[in-house]
Every structure is written in structure tokens, then in C-alpha cells.
Amino acid sequence: MTLPNIDTLTQNALDHYLFPLARKDEMRSDGATIFVSAEGLEITDAAGKTYLDMMSTQTRASSLGYGQDRIAKAIYDQLVGLHYGGTFANVVDVTVNLAAKIAELAPGTLTASVFAGSGSEANEMSFKAAKQYHLLNGVKPRAHKIIARWNAYHGATMGALAATDYLGTRHITEPGVPGYSHIPAPNLYRTPFGMDASEVSEFCADYLEQQILHEGPEYVAAFVAEPVMQADGVQIPPEDYFARVRAICDTYDVLFIADEVITGFGRTGKWFAMEHWGIDGDIMSMGKAITAGYFPLGVSTVSTKVHDALSQYVHVQTYNGHPGGCAAALETIAMLEEGDLLTSAAENGAYFLERMQRLRELPIVGDVRGLGMWTCVDFTTDKKTKAPFKDDTVKAIANRMAELGVLGGEEGTAIEFAPAYTATREQFDHCVDITEQAILEIAKGIT
Ligand SMILES: Cc1ncc(COP(=O)(O)O)c(C=O)c1O
């Protein structure tokens, strides 16, 4: 392969591409990483350096790795056959087939889907469905408020952003959409207000109830939560937390929206993470791995209760249910089923987590946790107080790992790994070795 002229590419990137979230001064001093090709779990940049990608491309979307020609071909065939069929009452067969397939896979009575192009839009559609449900069924017609959680990430569009509390993306656009509020999330490593981990579930659930009462139950449309929160790395809730949440939502006729944009389609070793606790949302938002990253697609799936109330769902976009994305999703799901890849995600993920546990012994490692193909190492300056690093230590570890040829994800206080479900045990072992080496090297300079 002929490599592109890296200087021209880099200059064009810095001059003409508005990098999302990345700081301009850092891009100018550190340079941009420009990828040009990939195969399996390996991705190559414009300078010709190849990395082992243990993040499914940074955002955890590429759940089946690179170069899956089956998915590419499915998209191609669909686009050549019928690339678009309009919106409103028009729909293409592949979109209906995907909606039916999701109804088959989704837990409980989640059976009717609306599609758009991203996880953010999936949440917008979920919030709209919740508000319209209350208006149309008439029991709480003024219910419009959404309760989310501290440190939640639900997306970048204005409604999803209003529910978001992570990455510092919300404040700069405020005042945003009114009617959103946030409550503590049940993090078990750095617990809310430093309480004992055994108290976290009850405290956070009670807080939800208090917030509903505070906002006025007749005005609260929905509570939205990521089953496993991404902020500061793979926050797995206490075992009984979602059962408590479900009961409180039912008491006050508040819909529960499960934001499965990261966790859906196998990331945690099950189709949907809420299956770990046997609790169903009234509405579920999805994106990312639904197409293994081969086509932008977001989905909001509603339960029969919500579907029945929506005599008309007032929402329209030009590209609702784009056939290319739906073909990609159906092929991705077929590959997950045929290869029994959820079982391997669960089994290989457990292997990876077990191998990673030895890092707990290292000086600056506070916690190692994970669920399915989603694992993280959380860092601390003090194993007793669990104080996070306030400087660039975590970033320095991630950067050193990249220099050593392994890509993990810097995730606040932690470094995260979300490899493709096709990762091999050799790749897990290599990743653990490199992570250990990078931690030891960086820790040496500070301990
Ligand atoms: C839980 C969750 N919801 C929503 C989103 C937004 O998805 P997108 O970036 O595709 O708009 C994300 C993105 O990371 C996410 O993690």
C-alpha cells in the first residue's frame, strides 16, 4: 500500500477539519492521529504505524473488528437495490425486517422501533416517545420532565445533551432544554459522598424517589440511565439497583428509559445489559454496535404499553430507517447469531478481566472491573482514599500504551478496554502485558 503524504494530510486536518472535543492547541502540538487502513483488530495510521485496537475504534462501535466484507457487501447490495424509500408512511422492507428482528431480540415487551442516525438521536426519540406517551394516554398529560444521573452520557444533540453530565459538553451550550435534572449514580468504587458500598443501591434509589417527589410526579415523564455507566470506566451497578428503580418508576408512573447505546448488541456478553438484572425498560435506546460501526444507526424501541398509547408518533427525519443502516444491522445481527459471538464475548471477556486482575498489585491501580467485553483499570494516588489523579497521569499511561502499539481508551480516572468480540486470547494477553509495562513506566516517575 502506498502511504499518503502525511505532512499534507496533517496540515489539511488541522486547517480544515474541526476536531470534535479535541483541544486545538493540543492537536497542533501533539498532531492528529489519521488512520488509513485496518484489518481484524489492527489499525494503521498515515505514518505507517499499526496498533492493536482494544477499544473497537475509540467509541466502542466496531464490535466485530475491521474488514468485515459481509457487512460491507450487505450495505452495497442494499444501496444498489434500493438506497432510500422516503419517510412518513413510506418504509423499505429491510427497515421493517430490522424492526421485527429487534422485537424478537429485545427483552420484555419492547417491540416497536424508530430509527435515526446516532445514539444521541436515539435518546431524542426515546424522550419524545416518553413525553407523547403521557400526553396521549391522558393519565399525566403534563408529564415532560426527564431525570438523569450525575456523570451520565446520553449524547450531543440538545435534548440528549440536557440529560448528559459527563465530558463537560453540556455547560458551554447552556441554557439548554428545560425540564432535565440529575441525581447520584450508584458507583461502587468511588461511592456517592464516600458512603459504604453496601448503602449505595438504597441511597441512589431513594434519591430517585425524592427527586420525583421534588419535581412533582405528575410532571415527570421518564428516568433515563445507562445500564453500565461509561464515565470513569465501566460502572457496574449494585445487583438490586435496577429492580429498585423499576419499582419506583412504576409507583409514580414514570417511564424507565434504558440507554443501551454502548451496552446493546453484545458488549456486556448479552444482547442487552439490562438482561443481567432481569429488568426491562419501557423504552430502550441503541446505536453503536448495532451495525458494528459500519453504518451510522440509532434506534429507540418502545414497549407495547407505549406503542399502544402512541396513536401518532410525532417525529420525522429525512433519513428515518435508512436502508443502508438497516441492512448493516441485519447482517451484523446474523453474524453475532451464526458465530455465537455473545457467548464468546462473555467467555473471552471473563478471561480478559481475570488476566487484568494482576494489575491491582501495581502502585497506582485502585480498581480493575468489567462486564463481558468491557473492562477498565481505575487509577488512584492513594489506594486507601481512592483519590483520583488530577494531573495528566492517566493520559500519559494511555499515550505510552499507544507508543507501544496498543490502543485503550482514556476514560476520566480510568483506562478502558472494549475490544471487538473477535479478539483472541493472545491479543488479550498482549494488551495486559503492555498495560502493565506502561503503568510501571509512568508510575516510576511519580512514586
Ligand atoms: C450511553 C450513550 N448514549 C448515547 C450516546 C450518543 O451516541 P452518539 O455519539 O452515536 O450520538 C453515547 C455515545 O457515546 C453513549 O455512550
List keywords for this structure.
alpha/beta, seven-stranded mixed beta sheet, four-stranded mixed beta sheet, 38% helix, globular, binds pyridoxal-5'-phosphate
Please indicate the percent range of residues in DSSP E strands (runs of 2 or more).
Answer: 15-25%
Total beta-strand segments: 15
What's the total helix number?
A: 14
Q: Class of the largest domain, according to the CATH hierarchy?
A: Alpha Beta
Side by side, the strands of the main sheet go 4-10-9-8-7-5-6
Largest sheet: 7 strands, mixed
Q: What is the average of the pLDDT values? A: 96
Q: What series of H and E elements makes up the topology? A: HHEEEHHHEHEHEHEHEEEHHHEEHEEEH
Heterogens:
pyridoxal-5'-phosphate
Structural class: alpha/beta
Give the oligomeric state of the chains in this entry, treating copies of one chain as homo and distinct chains as hetero: single chain
Name given to the CATH architecture of the largest domain: 3-Layer(aba) Sandwich
What does this structure look like?
This protein is an alpha/beta fold. It has two domains: 33-62 and 340-444, Aspartate Aminotransferase, domain 1 (Alpha-Beta Complex), CATH 3.90.1150; 70-338, Type I PLP-dependent aspartate aminotransferase-like (Major domain) (Aspartate Aminotransferase, domain 2). Helix content is 38%, strand content 16%. It contains 14 helices and 15 strands. The strands form three sheets. A seven-stranded mixed beta sheet has the order 4-10-9-8-7-5-6, with helices on both faces. The protein has a four-stranded mixed beta sheet with strand order 1-2-3-13. A hairpin with a 2-residue loop joins strand 1 and strand 2 (42-45). The longest helix has 20 residues, at 425-444. The radius of gyration is 22 Å and the shape is globular. 48% of the residues are buried. The model has no long low-confidence stretch (mean pLDDT 96). The structure holds pyridoxal-5'-phosphate. Residues 59, 118-120, 123, 153-156, 226, 230, 259, 261-262, 287 line the site of pyridoxal-5'-phosphate.
